[in-house]
Amino acid sequence: MSDTPHSRSRSHGPSHGHDHVDEFDRGLSYDLPVLARRRMIRLLAGASMVPLVAACSSDESGGTSSASSSSPSGSSASAADCETIPTETAGPYPGDGSNGPDVLRESGVVRRDITRSIGPANGVAEGVPLTVTLTVVAADSGCGTPKKGAAVYLWHCDREGRYSLYSDGVTDENYLRGVQETDAKGQVTFTSVFPGCYTGRWPHIHFEVYDSLDDATAAQDIVVTSQLAFPKDVCDTVYATDGYRQSVTHLSELSLETDGIFSDGYDQQLATMKGSVEKGYTANLTVPV
């Protein structure tokens, strides 16, 4: 069986050394209701626009003002455009205690720089520098209210496509995993490296949002679990550098439209990117919850 996200039998990532992956990764039967719900939201949103379109079409004498008068106010329109970030699987390598290792209870896990392991481990992840900023906002405010004091646990694979704590060769490492509390702007920023692309998955970052830092470090009461996607042009540029050669092959077999997670829509999860290989990249994403 090919190693695709929805084959799910130890297949949500590269080859790893734990035997209890099947227990955690609940498979296509779990993912389908999530995907169906997201499609229904989009259908309902589209249906809600029908009266407005009809009003515009029937107004033959400069229907702009007519459409404007029947449209929602600015604040309501913003709220309509602000959907909660799609919920995605955490995959089989979360490191949050739900499938084996629990890095969230480790001293030092609350940190900005996640390139180094903490505790007795001393590994350092190598690759093109990447700074990730997530802005957590209240969806019911039309994305206008930052969620100060929330917490984000973020993790991803390394340049070789391996997940610390799980993958062969890095089971004793815990790099590329960290927690931060959101500031007054609702933001958290992590210093990392650009992840590799492994068989069956588009390049991505996992994250969990919690109501508080206490909840995060206790690994309890997750508000939402989702994923961030990277634009193809940036991936192509990064993967042309030393150390990412295997990612070139894996990326050529994928697209955002065929990825098992992002294929049903990725607009809310596609990071805004700036930077260069020489200076490093920044990735920004707004996370409505």
Please characterize this protein's 3D structure.
The chain has 289 residues and is of the alpha+beta class. 24% of the residues lie in helices and 20% in strands. The chain is built from eight helices and nine strands. The chain has helices spanning 21-24, 28-47, 50-58, 64-70, 74-81, 213-217, 232-239, 245-252, and strands spanning 129-138, 145-146, 151-155, 177-181, 187-193, 204-210, 222-229, 272-276, 280-288. The strands form two sheets. Strands 1, 2, 5, 8 and 9 form a five-stranded mixed β-sheet that branches. Strand 1 (129-138) and strand 2 form a beta hairpin. The longest helix is centred in the N-terminal third of the chain and has 20 residues, at 28-47. The two termini are 36 Å apart. The model is unreliable at 1-78 (pLDDT under 50).
What brief labels describe this structure?
289 residues; alpha+beta; five-stranded mixed beta sheet; four-stranded antiparallel beta sheet; 8 helices; globular; disordered N terminus
